Amino acid sequence: MTVQELQPREARHHTGAILRSRRFATQFEVDGHVLTLGVEPGVRGGLYYLPSTPTWDDGTPVPPSIAAGMQTVIEEVERFWGHWPEFRAIL
Q1: Tell me, what's the pLDDT at 6?
Q2: Under a CB-based contact definition with an 8 Å cutoff, are residues 10 and 34 in contact?
Q3: How deeply is 7 buried, as exposed, middle or buried, from its count of CB atoms within 10 A (0-12, 13-18, 19+)?
Q4: How confident is the model at residue 20 (pLDDT cuts 50, 70, 90)?
């Protein structure tokens, strides 16, 4: 895992994805496309709600190849920050 911190609470994963963490939301960005995910505070990290059919904030579908790796990217970046995230699916 290679993660580069860009700013406080913003990091680039070795896949090129950028994660920006805010209080109740996290932005997952790839190639200029952004997906905003709901996050609730958890005991050891955030509780992420991942949509079963993700779409970018502009309404276009997230390619299956990116969607398949999204949870892993988030998990690795959060661990880089010292957190242990949990995930729930939204149907």
Answers
A1: 92
A2: no
A3: exposed
A4: very high
Kindly report the backbone phi and psi dihedral angles of residue 87, in degrees, each rounded to the nearest multiple of 5, phi listed first. Answer: -130, 140
Count of alpha carbons within 13 Å of 47, Cβ hemisphere only?
7
- The tokens of 54 are what? 């993700």
Sheet holding 25-30, edge to edge: 3-7, 10-13, 18-21, 25-30, 33-41, 46-51, 86-90
pLDDT tens-digit map of 25-42: 899 999 999 999 989 887
Given a contact cutoff of 8 angstroms between Cβ atoms, the answer to whether 32 and 45 are in contact is no
pLDDT at 11 exceeding the cut of 80: yes
State the pTM of this model.
0.88
Q: Which of 21, 7, 87 is nearest to 49 (CA)?
A: 87
Amino acid, single-letter form, for residue 37: L
**Per DSSP, what are the bridge partners of residue 19?**
11, 28
- Say how far apart CA 76 and CA 85 lie, in whole Å: 9
